[in-house]
Design goal:
By secondary structure, the chain is of the alpha/beta class. It contains 7 helices and 10 strands. It is globular. About 45% of the residues are buried.
Length: about 200
């Protein structure tokens, strides 16, 4: 396929959202890094993410949402999660929560939990709202490569593997989101990222 880099105009966002709904891949910016997105509730679409990235088959996908209401459809929002969502979301935080049945087991690699991310980026939020579904979106690079912070870096990694790249300019942080697991007996930070751990512990 021929990969296009498009400006995030209303027309192009509508086109990208339609591609997501049809089970295709779209790369888009967040405040952290660019993501490689697919309809998170469509197993065939999510399989394309693994193929395009060369992603290990045992590495679950996090789901991007555009509202707390959308988050509650895919995961069980615990009291601790409510605190973190209120304090940091939209923002550079991925929260691991017990998943709801609507999320395919393939997406979570058979786990009973799912990563939920509410990005603080207008292009990402518009795309998710227009698509009307949570979007699975790991970083838009070949597995093992540096996560991209510009549309050109995505193109250099994934040209011919993704239909459309929405060019939202350089990402605000250029580093991945912080991941916290709230399914364990005590909250556990799995990946240090854009939001410092100290701020998270202050809220919790």
């Amino acid at each position: 396929m021929q990969t296009e880099i498009l400006q995030p105009t209303e027309e192009n966002l509508l086109r990208a959202a339609e591609l997501i709904r049809r089970g295709e891949l779209v790369a888009f910016p967040t405040e952290t890094v660019y993501g490689l997105g697919a309809d998170a509730l469509n197993v065939a679409a999510c399989k394309k993410i693994f193929a395009a990235k060369g992603r290990p088959s045992d590495k679950p996908l996090s789901l991007h949402v555009a509202s707390v209401a959308m988050a509650s459809k895919i995961a069980q929002i615990t009291p601790a999660a409510e605190k973190l969502l209120a304090a940091f979301c939209p923002g550079a935080l991925t929260i691991i929560l017990p998943k709801n049945k609507i999320v395919p087991d393939f997406v979570t690699c058979g786990l009973s939990s799912v990563g939920v991310r509410f990005p603080a980026n207008d292009v990402a939020l518009k795309l998710i709202r227009l698509a009307g579904v949570p979007i699975a979106a790991p970083s838009a690079n070949l597995s093992g490569q540096t996560p991209p912070s510009t549309a050109r870096e995505v193109f250099d990694n994934l040209s011919g593997r993704v239909e459309v790249i929405l060019d939202g300019g350089a990402c605000q942080f250029g580093v991945s989101s912080t991941i916290i697991d709230l399914t364990t007996s005590e909250p556990l930070i799995l990946r240090h990222g854009a939001i410092p751990a100290e701020k998270i512990w202050e809220v919790l």
